Amino acid sequence: MENSMTVSSPEAGTSPAVAIRGVNKIFNQGKPNQVDALVDIDLDVQPGEFISLIGPSGCGKSTLLRLVADLLEPTSGSVTIHGKSAHQARVDQDYGMAFQQSGLFEWRTVERNIELPLELKGWDKAARRQRSQEMLELVKLPEFAKHMPWQLSGGMQQRIAIARALASHPKLLLMDEPFGALDEMTREHMQAELLRICAAAGTTVVFVTHSIPEAVYLADRVVVMSPRPGRITEIVSVALGRDRSELTREATDFFARVTEVREALRGIEMADHAKGIDDR
Amino acid sequence: MNATVRLRNALAVVLPPLVLGVLFLAAWQAWVVVSDVQPFVIPRPTDIWRSFIDDFDLVWKASVVTGMNALVGLVLGSLIGFVVAVLTNRFAFVSDLVNPLAITVAAIPAVVIVGVLNNMYSLDSQIPRRIMVTISVFFVVFVQVTKGLRQNDATQMELMRSYAASPFDTLKKVRLPNTMPFFFTGVRTAAPLALIIALVSEYFGGTQDGLGSKISGTLNGSNKALGFAYVLGGALVGLLFFAGSNLLEYLVVPWRRRGRSK
Question: What part of A 198-257 touches B (C-beta under 8 Å)?
Fold first, then answer.
């Protein structure tokens, strides 16, 4: 089945960074605990675009991210990354990934953490070292190369995780609530840093969050999802321009988009609530 | 942290148990002297110490015999336990098969096996005792490593999958390092056990040159002070094992020093 996916989209130049077509994901199919995690998902992400996925817990946003990453397989439908099957993209390390937990390997120094994906790709040591230095410069932590993860603050650990995710210069970055465990100040700082880093490399980002201001501040488009079954209910175009700063957070347009996303989410909540009463 | 603070912290850790130990020995000494307990019933700590110094070569020889048996069994049992746990982990049914067996074997007084082994080897052989220690250590380490291999950090595993890492790379670079703290928990638990098993194994016949034989021999006789000197020798070997396994863990698993958690 993976082979059938690889053939699609011959003109790679025009193909979207991520193309999700008619995707369904059912867990425990046919069993009493069957869950329709995702239903009829269609979404195209353009190269260089920043997409936020937002929705209440159980809406399948993390599941959708894992389908793109080929950490899960769709029950039906297809996911392609720059015209390749998700599986091939994973094998080729075409994307980088970061999670809420930094997932740093505590027995490796910071630089050897960043080098791990390159090591697995068979890079030689000198090239690896050069790239990890470059990545540490990028996340502004060059003096911490020889440190162990536990010697770093939560925000610094997360920056190292991002450096690692970007070490092989992937065109696509997949992030699952990467700033969810950080305090508000650090979080806003990290959001600005992420935009700077991705703008510099023209990286496409799919970013899962449940913070509305975070989703709006970062994204070109905010994809609003609803639970039971997980589906896309609305896509809000943010259109604040790519040049965002701390001033953006205080702009009228920013608040307008925040309100728009909030109302989209509230619509879900109301419907969900009403359904909840019916069900129980 | 300056030197005086560090010294004070070190003293705070070392001093209380030291004081307690000294008080205990003093109370023992005082009780034996005051109640005029006969030396062939309970010897005085000072007599035990004198005996330990005077007959140090006897205590040393017996300690080396038993200590070597325990050490050989500890090393072999740990290695075999580790390797078998890693191998069986690839096949869930095998570890499901071995695990209940491990727990059962740990629960029965398995030292009796040494009696059977004694019949298989020559009378002056230390091999039956070493096999016995190996078996006991094996199960302790096996259970711990199996546990460790099953407790992987979910984020780290997803990352490895996202890198399309091979099962072997994942094992080598993530699962084995993750398992090391569990392995050393097993080794630290097994270290005193190894010594006890080595000691008790000597009760089931064979050559009478180790601490176990000497302790049981002398404690039944009238020279109780020498018997206790052998016990002291055993205690020191045990302490050495404890310190050795902790040092090894400190060196091999530096990321878990000072009780750090992830």
Answer: none
